[in-house]
Amino acid sequence: MSVELFGNGDARVREALAVRFAVFVDEQHVPPEIEIDEHDEPDDGDAVHAIVRRGETAIATGRLYRRDPETAQIGRMAVLREARRSGAGRALLDALLDDACRRGYRRARLSAQIHAIAFYEKAGFAVFGGVYDDAGIPHRDMEREL
Fold first, then answer.
1. What strands, in cross-sheet order, belong to the sheet with 71-79?
2. Which of 36, 43, 33 is CA-nearest to residue 61?
3. Separation CA 70–CA 50 (nearest Å)
C-alpha cells in the first residue's frame, strides 16, 4: 500500500473523484451535484488530495485545505468497500495529518459521519458540537491538535 499527495490540477484528482463517487454517490446516495466543490477546482491552490493505492489501483482518498491560518480541514475521506479494515483509511489520515504539520497548521478539523467517529477518536480527534445533517447523513464535527 502506498500514499500519494498532490494538488488540484493534477491528473490524479480524477482517480480521487472516482473513489469518492463510488463511496459517496453510488453507495451512500449523496447527490452527485454536491460531491464536487470549490476545493476540487484547479484554482484552489491550498487543497491537497491524497490517494492510497494497492498496486496500481486507487482504493482510498481524502483531502485537506486551509480552514484558517492555524487549522487544516480534512474531508472527503473515502475507502472503497473492498478495502475497508485494511489499514488504508488510517494510512490516508496519517499522511494528511503529516502534511498538515509540514504546512505549519496547529490543528486539524473534520466532519465525521456518525459511524466513523470511533475511527477518528483512535487518531486523537475529539467530538464537539451536536449532530447535524450533511447530504442526508448524520455528522459531528471533530478536532485535534497537531
1. 2-7, 48-54, 57-68, 71-79, 107-113, 137-145, 126-134
2. 36
3. 20
Mean of the pLDDT values across residues 38-54? 90
Is residue 44 within 8 A of residue 90, CB to CB? The reply is no
- The hierarchical CATH code for the domain 2-105 is 3.40.630.30
Is the pLDDT at 46 greater than 90, yes or no? Answer: no
The residue ranges of every structural domain in the chain are 2-105
Q: Which residue has the cell 474531508?
A: 75
User: What string of DSSP letters covers 44-97?
Assistant: -TT-EEEEEEETTEEEEEEEEEEEETTEEEEEEEEE-GGGTTTTHHHHHHHHHH
Q: 143: which 3 cell numbers?
A: 478536532
Residues 146/104, Cβ–Cβ less than 8 Å = no
For residue 43, pLDDT beyond 90: no
In this prediction the pTM is 0.94
